[in-house]
Every structure is written in C-alpha cells, then in structure tokens.
Amino acid sequence: MLSLANGTWAKADRLLLIGAVSSISFFVFNVLWQVDFAKTMPDGTIVLVSDFLSFWMAARQVLMGMPEVPYDINAFIGVQELYNDPGVFFAFFYPPMYLMMITPLGFFSSTTAYIVFQAFNAVALSVVMKKIARHWLAVFLVFGSPAAYMSMMNGQNGLLTAFLFGAGLLCLQSRRLVLAGVFIGLLTIKPQLGVLIPFALLAGGYWITFLSAVVTTFLFAGASWIVFGSDTWLAFLQQIPAAQLAMTDGFLPVYHLASVFGFIVGIGGSVGVASVLQFMFGLFLVVITVWTWRKQINFEAKAIVLLSASTLISPFIFVYDLTLLSLAIAFLAGGRANQKLPPWTTTLCATALLITGFSFGIAQTFLIQLGPLAGLLVLIVGLRLAVFSEGTSQVTANRTATQFQGL
C-alpha cells in the first residue's frame, strides 16, 4: 500500500514490462476477437462484423453513388442484412465530413480496410504521444492502453479522434496556432469530444486558433456538401433525433455509455434525472476549464484538464473515447513541472487506465458504469498540477520583478 501511495512502484523497467506485456496481450486478443466475429461470405471474402462494419459499408455506399443511405436507418439495415445476424445492426451517426474522410476505405476489402484504418491511426497517435511525452515509452499508452484496445477491437475511431485532439494541442503548445485550429476543426467528425475546446481557446486568448478552427470546420463541411450534395446533409440532420433516441430509449444498452449519464441511468435513475445531472456537471466542467485556461500556468496542466474534462462533458461518450486520457497522461509525463507533484498522482493515473479496462465488463454485468471515474481521477491530477504550476509561475514572476527592481 505504501508503494502505491509514494509511487515507487512506477519504475522505468516495470513500466516497460507492463507496457510490453499489455501490448502483446491486447494484440493477440484483438486478432482472436476479429477472427471469432468474422464472417466468411459465399464468394470466400471475409467481413469483420463489428462497429467497423458501419464505416466500411458507409464508404461502399458512397462509391456506389448512394451517400445518403448510411443516414437512412431502414435502408442501412437492409444493406447490412447480408452480413449481420437477425436483430443486429450497426448505425452510422457521424456527420458527412467523417463519411468523406473514410470513403477511401470502400476501395478495400473489409479486413484490408480495417488494417489500413487502424494502422494509420495507431501510428499517427503514437507519433503524437512520443512528441508530447518526450519519450518513446509513450507508445505503450496507445498499444497497451485498455481504452485504445477497445477502440481497435471494435474497429472504432478512438485512436483517430485522440490523434486529432492531441495534434491540435501539440501545435498549440508549440505556437503553431493556425495548424492547431486545422486539427481542431477536423475533430468535428465527433463534435461531442470538442464541446469544451472553444471555451478553452477563448479563455486562453488563442483567437487565431479559434478562427482557424471555425474556418476549417466550414471548409470541411462545405467540401462534404460539394462532394455529397444537399440530400446527404438533409438525411444526416433528419437522423439526429433518432441518434438521441438510440441513447435514451434502450436501442443502445446503457452499459455502452461511459458517461455521468450512463452511470446515473445504470444505477436506476431516470433519463430525465440523468440528463439534468449531466447538464449540471457539464456547467461545472465549463467553469473549471475556463478557470484553468485563463491562468498563467504551464500548458501541460491546461491540456490535462481539457482532455479529462472532455471525456466527462457529454452523455454520448464510449469506453474507446477514453483514449483521450492516455493523451492527458502523456502530457503529465512530458511536463517539466510534474517533478514536484505528489507521488500518488502516478497511482491515480494508473488507476484511471485500469478503470477503462474494466468499466465495460462491470457495467455489462452490474449496470454500474465506472468510466466517468477514470476521467475524474485524471481531472484531479490536472487540477493539482494547475494549482502547483500557478504557485511556481507566481514565484518566477516575483523573482523576475525583483531582478528588474535591482537594475
């Protein structure tokens, strides 16, 4: 217990061993999972039956000249019947920008498309992780992270959205303000993850990045409108209520939602109560984010608070979206001010990662969703770093003022 409290368990050789074992294990389990849920068609082709099926089928519909089909639930069910068991359906609730982004996947077979998609995302995120943490061991936060594994196992886009978010913050940290806005604008493929970003940018005075993100968003949306036409966008907008009902009317099991909303409903709360509590907690997160980003503190603290709070702000958060917490931990590892943080922060971050691995199974069995706890633990670490770095910044400012007075 003392080792957990003082953080002495987190030695480099142990982290290397844990990361290597986790990465190899997750890779093997992922291969076995894909084989188990793959379906061999009469022509001998193999189709992966997971969330990735909706991405691949949506891309195929675009290439067939029917980009609006993924947004017509009945029509999309029809095109999936050949691959799914009765009663199984993978919806496509993403905006047309994302549909345009994944269209090239339709040129490949299901398995090849999956490998290309996940490999590109994993490599891109690994590069960003290494640059943030300033050490190659950070790649284990991708390949050895339970949340990232859940994303790859289900063929989801958790690695892609984490890459876009992380690249945006990395560019912001290095003062490449326009490029940061471009990455943030591209993150609108999953808008619920970026709810807090405008508050952070405006509070921090990053007007150029904010404007760059707005322009990128409009150009991105405009390009998809030019490519797909008005009918596809209208179909997407008409589908939004159905997407909301999927979350509240039982179409989507509550144990899939790693949010405050999912926790409240899971323990027996009504949808109305859960929605109100999620909204109230969201307001608190906005205040915390604005408070942090307004202060003259190190960037790592701001990034950790924003990333962790972004996993808590929306009711529509899944376990694989918690890959953002790996980014937060990478910022903590790469920060210069983290050396004087309490040692228990290391154990807190490790606990958060473990929770992302067990939250889905616990929720599936007991209907208790622990996913929000992972984000909350990392948020505590970020706030602690913010308070510490504020004190450090104040001391530095006082020393500078004293030096000028002595000239």
Q: Could you explain the architecture of this structure?
A:
It is a single chain. The protein is an all-alpha fold. It has a domain at 255-393. It has helices spanning 2-6, 12-37, 52-63, 73-80, 96-102, 110-133, 140-143, 146-153, 158-173, 177-186, 197-204, 207-228, 230-248, 260-266, 271-294, 299-310, 324-334, 344-366, 371-405, and strands spanning 38-40, 46-48. Strands 1-2 form a two-stranded antiparallel sheet. The longest helix has 35 residues, at 371-405.
Largest sheet: 2 strands, antiparallel
DSSP helical segment count: 19
Main-sheet strand order equals 1-2
What is the number of beta strands? 2
Dominant shape: globular
Short account of what is shown:
This protein is an all-alpha fold and 407 residues long. It has 19 helices and two strands.
Produce the secondary structure layout.
Blueprint: H1 2-6, H2 12-37, E1 38-40, E2 46-48, H3 52-63, H4 73-80, H5 96-102, H6 110-133, H7 140-143, H8 146-153, H9 158-173, H10 177-186, H11 197-204, H12 207-228, H13 230-248, H14 260-266, H15 271-294, H16 299-310, H17 324-334, H18 344-366, H19 371-405
Antiparallel strand pairs: 1-2
Helix pairs in contact: 2-8, 5-12, 6-9, 6-17, 9-10, 10-12, 11-15, 14-15, 15-16, 16-17, 16-19, 17-19, 18-19
Features:
single chain; 407 residues; mainly alpha; two-stranded antiparallel sheet; disordered C terminus
